[in-house]
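To whoever is on call:

I kicked off a structure prediction for a single chain this morning and the downstream step that reads the tokens threw a length-mismatch warning. I double-checked the sequence; it's 608 residues and nothing unusual in it as far as I can see. Pasting both halves so you can look.
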Amino acid sequence: IELQQRARAPAEQERQQQQQQRGEPSCAVLKESAQLELITEGRRVGAGDARRRPESIAMIDFENTKEAYKSKSTLELLRSLLVFKLCSYDLLVDRNKELMDLSRKVLGQKIFEQLMKMTFYGQFVAGEDQEAIKPLVQKNRAFGVGSVLDYSVEEDLTQEEAEKKEMDSCVSEAEKSSPGEDHREKKYKAHRQFGDRRGGVVSARTYFYADEAKCDQHMETFLRCIQASGGSSEDGFSAIKMTALGRPQFLLQFSEVLVKWRRFFSFLAAQQGKERMTALEQKLELDQLKESLTKLGVATKDDIQNWFTGEKLGSSGTIDLLDWNSLINDRTKISNLLVVPNLETGQLEPLLHKFTDEEERQMKRMLQRMDVLAKHAVQEGVRLMVDAEQTYFQPAISRLTLEMQRIFNKEKPIIFNTYQCYLKEAYDNVTVDVELSRREGWYFGAKLVRGAYMYQERRRAAEIGYEDPINLDYEATNRMYHRCLDFILEEIEHNRNANVMVASHNEDTVKFTLQRMNEMGLSPGENKVYFGQLLGMCDQISFPLGQAGFPVYKYVPYGPVNEVLPYLSRRAQENRGFMKGSTRERHLLWIELKRRLLSRELFYSPSY
């Protein structure tokens, strides 16, 4: 099966890479005003019309504080200034957990909760439950900003407790009884020093496996979140994490299998002199492939012939990576999937010598919980966003998400996968999945992020001894983000079945997206390109976009005060770097306060 004619030529790739070489300061350091002409037809859209298709050439000015903060009361502006200032003090951020514990003891639970709601909790969390969040969700929507609901409660574990839970849940019975006898790579094995997956992570909640009943509770929580999203808006998103839905041992093992099979494909491509091609350009000659597999002794000649005797498979005389991936199919027992090619012996070998019946049931329950959530999202009219996680889990998470997309994205985009652009393989992952959606005719849905696990991933790779999966530096990640984004935008331009959320606080990335939309003639009213930021951050990006008619969303965490303290602790850490780099956001807040003072609007309260 040949790629469509629109595949990039090398010269086009070089042009885009040169275009993306420029630096990308975050929204906190960009000092220039961004005014971009966008394709629209009639008049400028106000807050109340934010979800209508714009009808005139709208000018997006990220310096216009009146527009950026028109949804905020003056007290809310003062709270933002206070919180961002506190986040810039190292001592307060480094000791924030101890200080919160001390405040709770000194002030008492009731006063402590009120203090948190007036400061950090009020800035970054929408409320305690589905009912409490409705006013904020409805207010944001009135000003053109939708919601991605995220129940951000986490278990407050010590490091020792987290490490024990991780080791218990990531090591199989076979490995416990006979350590070192199975064909496992160290990257995809649990290591106690990295058992606490919260270490070095500032913007993602973390789940640790306790038992199957706890996974069922997480599923019920996600179901309520989906229901709340459906009840609070007609075009909402809900976020889920795969590690909350089952024992992570399966994700580790399945990830290793997928990576080894892909590596085996690259090995076979190199034998045919195609090692320098991109993932999708590598097309193996079928006759040569069969001969190579027979010589390696991977299977009998008849078995190999049967592998490539299927609908369309090998009909063009070549096999590409998508055809190859389809060989890893769903057999009767899920554990039968976990076989890998051994290049030394030439045999297909089980990743583990044996699986217990309970481990088999645990694998199936994870898949069943995913299925329940996807079906509920369809019923509620809510789009489901599967968050990305660590690289040793991510191949399995992406593959399982893709399988859900193949089932549930046939008529419209319901399931969205997350691509971390700080990974060296991000572009290959995006292009392969887009091509599969094009071949099979379902809606591709993606959220692009830079990534939340960089420091943890780099340290783990260095200490355990495998290749660092992260791009060399921040600029390389910026280029990768823009390259992946540009590929998806071109897919939208040529095939309206693709959809992308640009989840970024980087103002320059937002400007790049708007410019490319303008060049390609992509109207915001088509709802193919979305923008996303965290609640309480970068309002000067979110609200001007929303009021100009662009689909923009805030990630909206919610949960009881005491149970979201781990989330708030990380928000403080993230904002330390965010606010110390520059005073831009505080500067804009001060400008708006002065404007309101001089125009006698100090007691302004938003109306909608």
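Update from on-call: the warning came from a stale cache, not from the record. Cleared it. Sanity check on the structure: The first strand starts at residue 35 and ends at 37.
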